[in-house]
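[stage:ingest] chain + small molecule (nicotinamide-adenine-dinucleotide)
[stage:ingest] validated
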Amino acid sequence: MSTNKPLTIKSSVGDWLADPVGHQLLAELLAQHGRDVSVLKAARMFSLQRMVAMSRGMLPQETADDLVRRVNVGRSPDQDAEQGGAPKTTLPAVPARAWTERIVSDRFGGCTTIVTGAGSGIGFATASRILREGGRVIAVDVSAPRLAALVAAHPNAQLVTVEADITDEAGVRRIVDAAGDRIDGLANVAGIGDDMTPIHETSDQVWERVFAVNVDGTFRLTRAVVPKMLAAGRGSIVNVASEAALRGSAAGVAYTASKHAVVGMTKSSAYMYGEAGIRVNAVAPGPVATNIEVSFASALGEDRIGAAMANIPLAADAAQLAASITFLLSDDGTNLTGAVLPSDGGWSAL
Ligand SMILES: NC(=O)c1ccc[n+]([C@@H]2O[C@H](COP(=O)([O-])OP(=O)(O)OC[C@H]3O[C@@H](n4cnc5c(N)ncnc54)[C@H](O)[C@@H]3O)[C@@H](O)[C@H]2O)c1
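[stage:predict] done
[stage:export] tokens:
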């Protein structure tokens, strides 16, 4: 049995790693998948329960529950509490409701939508939803293999892929040329994380790269697309911001400032084009299980952000974000412009 305080399903991965028995159990589990505990560096602030949701099957609920039992030598503090300990809530706990995606036939019929970051995560899910709802998608990503996977998953769909970097003006021209004269929608999804540093520890390299992709890339592509929407007198743009656009405790300064800039672009454009038939909105995702990479280059950042993340909602599936994004992109978003929609399981209500 560990000498430290009891570990529970709600203890952070950092606490599990700091405990000798917890460390050993996690190391053994990862070894079964050919990995070691270094892969958990970026997940130190997340609870073991959140890791179940984020692991995409690698850490099933039963395995996590078993880890809790074993680390406490057959005694789970969570179970003890449930079996007579002081109640932690005044509301009965109910199991999370499963969500089933419902395809709206032909919702995007006749429409061309550019989706950036379409090779992975939220962009992949957004492109997929539009394709399955009858739309034509110009799928943009820097990764050719990821775009190939999107194609393989959608045979016979109206899908054009463009391997391009949105920070590159020539790449932006190729994207707009591939779309042709009519562009109904633009989903600016591509983005990168930062290294969770506070401002006095942030390098020029991290600041500039995060702003290049999250801000400059979004700016350049939107600037190139808007004239076609103005000519058509219609269009819908959805920018993917973040919980970090709503608060200071979700990421480092570079990512936080970049996503606040995305909200600024959204509101300015919504106002400027409000009478020209172009709607511009943003979605602010909470945690989502994707391939996005974040690192922790600062002990202060890890400590401060970890403390703020202790009670945030579990990670969503990328398809749930696609549901929010495609709602705003589609005509169902009529009457919405300049909105910043948190799609975060309630984090913004904390
Ligand atoms: N995953 C989360 O928890 C989360 C939370 C809040 C906001 N977001 C935002 O959601 C968006 C999508 O992130 P994700 O989690 O799906 O990440 P992801 O890494 O799974 O997918 C992002 C895709 O964008 C591509 N990309 C990166 N830079 C690019 C560039 N310069 N040009 C073209 N393509 C580029 C990548 O190759 C990748 O395929 C990002 O803007 C991110 O900031 C994600």
